[in-house]
Amino acid sequence: MKKLIVLLLCCLAFEPALADARELVLAYNVFEPWKKLDARGEPAGPYTEIVRELARRVGLPLSFLHCPLSRCLAAMQQGRADLMIGVRPTPERSRYLDFLMPPFATSNHLVFYQRSGDPRALARYDDLLPLTVGVAEGVSYEAGFDHDARIRREASPGMESGFRKLAAGRVDALIVNASQGAALAARPEFAGRVKRAALTLDDRHPNRLALALRSPLHPRKADLEQALRGMVADGTVTRILAAARR
User: Fold this and answer.
1) In a 3-state reduction of DSSP, which class is residue 66?
2) Which of 78, 89, 107, 242 could form a disulfide with 203 if both were Cys (CB 3.0 to 4.6 A apart)?
3) Which of 177, 173, 179, 165 lies closest to 195, judged by CA?
4) CA–CA separation, 104 vs 237, rounded Å?
5) pLDDT of 186-240, one tens digit each?
6) Cα torsion for 78, 81, 85, 89, to the nearest 10°?
């Protein structure tokens, strides 16, 4: 009887540890240059390294759920993934995403690309109105642009396919984050076929990690925020982002 009681007590003692031993699932959509795949097809890029370090500091193994943005968001909504990085807050997303503090970076400009031989000026916002503008499916850009019913939009699964549509003449312009646009426009497939327009939009929202409200790890939100706060305070995040710019 005593042996049975001891065994039961041991099982109870290990139960929390087993619960804590689950992995952290990152919903992973490629978003170059911050989230990309290396030559072996493995997740890479500065945002990936930030999450790897966060997982290490909270003592959780990290796994990746590869998905386009819309499916990644659905996985977060359903609680099949725990974390996303590089997704911006919106009122609708706030119903199923909990954005962690502190922000890990600030955003940069939104820019526009045209085909190289397009003579039309694209320097003022109103220059967009006669055009069909390529956007990425599920991406939120800037509030004024997002809610402007005058803009004709053509959605693509991602920016790579958006650049292909632009080069092929299926859209007139493309809106994209400045760093992502520069990386894609420099590819041999697009070099010389597209050009950056003069028009830019400010994108001032801070970058924050998103934790799924239905994630089994949501009760550990404070641990995640403490680890993230430490990474920002000790310069780890700055070093990771700076290394990516070299």
Assistant:
1) strand
2) 107
3) 173
4) 7
5) 999 999 999 999 999 876 678 899 999 999 999 999 999 999 999 999 999 989 9
6) 10
Closest-CA residue to 127 (of 226, 198, 228, 34): 198
The residues, ordered by sequence, that sit 6+ positions from 22 with a Cβ below 8 Å of its Cβ are 60, 216, 217
Query: Sign of dihedral through CA atoms 120, 124, 127, 128?
Result: positive
Asked if omega into 102 is within 30° of 0 (cis), the reply is yes
- Give the CA-trace dihedral at 127, 129, 131, 137, to 10 degrees: 110
Helix (H) or strand (E) holding 201: strand 194-201
Query: Which two three-digit tokens encode residue 122?
Result: 């694209």
Burial class (CB in 10 A: 0-12, 13-18, 19+), 115: middle
Q: Which position has the higher pLDDT, 236 or 90? A: 236
Strand, coil or helix: 16: helix
Question: How far is the C-alpha of 225 from the C-alpha of 194, rounded, in Å?
Answer: 41
In the chain, the largest separation of any two C-alpha atoms, in whole Å, equals 88
**8: Cβ contacts below 8 Å, ≥ 6 apart:** none
Helices (H), the chain: 2-20, 46-58, 69-78, 143-146, 159-168, 178-185, 221-233, 236-245
Pairing type for strands 173-177 and 83-84 reads unpaired
